Amino acid sequence: MHEVLTLEEAADYLRLPVETVEREAARGRIPGRRVEDTWRFLKTAIDEWLGNWESRQVLLQQAGVLAEDETLAELRASVYANRGRPEADSENGCIKSET
Question: Angle at CA 87, nearest 5°, toward 29 and 89?
Answer without folding.
Answer: 80
